[in-house]
Amino acid sequence: MARAGWTHDELVTGVLAGDRRALARAITLVEDGSPEAETLVREVYPRTGHAASIGVTGPPGVGKSSLVSALVAEVRGAGRSVGVVSVDPSSPFSRGALLGDRIRLAEHFLDPDVYIRSMGTRGHLGGLAEATLQALLLVDASGKDVVFLETVGTGQSEVEVIGIADIVLLVLMPGSGDAVQALKAGIMEIPDVIVVNKMDHPAAKTMLQEVRSIVALDPDRERRPRILLTDALRERNLSGEVETLAVARLRERVREAMAADAAVGDAVERVTQRELDPLSAVSLVVDSVTGARG
User: Fold this and answer.
1) Which residues are bridge partners to 53 per DSSP?
2) Would you list the DSSP string of 189-220?
3) 107 vs 286: CA distance, rounded Å
4) Spatial distance between the Cα atoms of 11 and 232, rounded to a whole number of angstroms
5) d(CA 82, CA 113)
6) Distance, CA of 169 to CA of 230 (rounded, Å)
7) Is 42 helix (H, G, I), strand (E, B) or coil?
8) Mean pLDDT for each consecutive 10-residue tract of the chain (294 residues)?
9) Which residue of 51, 118, 222, 228 shows the fewest CB atoms closer than 10 Å?
């Protein structure tokens, strides 16, 4: 019996039918290291091999999520379905940060042909590549045409995870010193495409030349990746920053209202006592913050 009311057969049928809830439950089993996950993947495996997988990696803050969002839009514009699996191998406490990054993919949340999942590692670095592969196979089996696999960083763990993708994109920006050193040291095998983001940065062209010099060391010209200089949705990024700051400021005002407004404080207390429903309390908080009350 699978968790949360799903039988094993229902999960298999649901995943193959593209049911988002079944897919989410199946990936959770993978994250938890459940023995049932292996059996599940084994049963859906004959229906895999349809999706193209694209790995996107690079240091935090270089614009991976914005780039993935733009690529998802391109794929959807071509009429194909998409899955996005995001993994942070560096920390067992990665859910919050990943969910924050997913804000940049918000425009795709309501699209029924886009499935987005942030995978927590639960601290199990040893089997992370295997767990990611299982998740990728499940999304593939659910019928998605293209699956983007996004990971943070360019260390050994990240390389193992991203290596399961068909095509690997390395996203860099001026200041990505550690990632460039990883390339030089051979920790990260040469990806298929290298994107130097934030092309308007004064040091962008310098970094482009440095990356080109590293890539040129490979004697096999056929293996040398294409290097692109981009600026991933700068205006959208700026609007996202404004939104983030505005939300942070509003959150502070909500906290102040909850502390200073006696009626709001009383409403919150009544919620904890099960005397008032949360939505009614939220209405009071919003009215207090916006000045709509009194």
Assistant:
1) 147
2) ---SEEEE--TTSTTHHHHHHHHHHHHTT-S-
3) 25
4) 38
5) 6
6) 13
7) helix
8) 74 96 92 88 92 88 83 93 82 43 66 87 59 91 95 68 84 74 63 79 76 77 76 50 65 80 86 82 83 63
9) 222
Say how far apart CA 149 and CA 84 lie, in whole Å.
6
**3-state secondary structure (DSSP) of residue 76:** helix
d(CA 250, CA 256) in angstroms, rounded, equals 10
At residue 156, the pLDDT reads 65
The pLDDT value given to residue 235: 45
CB 67 within 8 Å of CB 195: yes
SS3 228: strand
| CA pair distance 250, 49, nearest whole angstrom | 46
Paired tokens of 27: 């990936």
What does the block give as tokens for 74? Answer: 């391109």
Going through the chain in order, the beta strands assigned E by DSSP cover: 52-57, 82-87, 114-119, 146-151, 167-172, 193-196, 226-229
Q: What is the token pair recorded at 249? A: 């400021």
Map residue 126 onto helix, strand or coil.
coil
Beta bridge partner(s), residue 56:
150, 169
Query: Which pLDDT belongs to residue 205?
Result: 78
- Please calculate the CA angle 158-100-183 and round it to the nearest 5 degrees: 25
CA-to-CA separations, 54 to 63, 134, 176, 180, in angstroms, rounded: 16, 15, 21, 21
Which residues have C-beta within 8 Å of that of residue 30, sequence separation ≥ 6? 37, 41, 131, 134, 135, 138
- Contact assessment for residue 41 and residue 138, using Cβ atoms and an 8 Å cutoff: yes
Asked if 244 contacts 104 with a C-beta cutoff of 8 angstroms, the reply is: no
Structure tokens at 4: 């949360």
How close are the terminal C-alpha atoms of the chain, in Å?
54
CA distances in angstroms from 256 to 56, 246, 251, 260, 270, listed in the order given: 41, 15, 9, 6, 18
Q: Which two tokens stand for residue 199?
A: 């092309």
